[in-house]
Amino acid sequence: MRRWAAALLLLALLAGAAYFFLLREKTVVAKVSSPQPAATIGSGSEAVVVSSTGKVVPWLPPPKEPPLPTLPLTEEPKSGQLAGTALQQARVLGAAPAPLRPYLERSYYGKSGVDVVLTTGIELRFGDASRAALKWQAAATVLADPSVTSLDYVDLHAPNHPSFAGSGHSLPPAP
Predict the structure, then answer these.
(1) What pairs with residue 39 in β-bridges?
(2) 104-119: string of b/e by CB count within 10 Å (b at 16+)?
(3) By CB distance 3.0 to 4.6 Å, which of 38, 85, 144, 157 could disulfide with 93?
(4) In whole angstroms, what is the distance from residue 89 CA to residue 161 CA?
(5) Looking at the DSSP assignment, which residues form a beta bridge with residue 57?
(6) What angle do CA 20, 24, 28 make, to 5 degrees?
């Protein structure tokens, strides 16, 4: 009887040690995250939110303030996932830094690729969605430059050397 009790005690200790040293660090922890809204398709009560990954999120209501920029689509894709140029636009819009988001009006795919139009009319020309965060940093640097008082566009194809020109639009107010 004592041998059985000792064997059971040893087995319990081994099981506890195995859990503590082998399994405890590898337990699953549930993480819930909501998608980051990047743009909308449509307007008004019919507007549908699109995430920065291009996924349509019909259960997420569009924020009232600041409004999300719109994509030039008339209806959401049946697959629930953007593709092609619309996906490129969603990725660019999703990478926008928080201080600039209130000034984003819309996006379209033009001759130069993805273009984002600010509420003041300034056009940001991204090309494709590659290095979008770096391109947004370059755009913010140009917009924050005190020597620049007005412009029409900022070309961000080469984010290390952005180019800009024009004098038709004033800069958005500083956040």
Answers:
(1) 50
(2) bebbebeeebbbbbbe
(3) 38
(4) 22
(5) 49
(6) 165
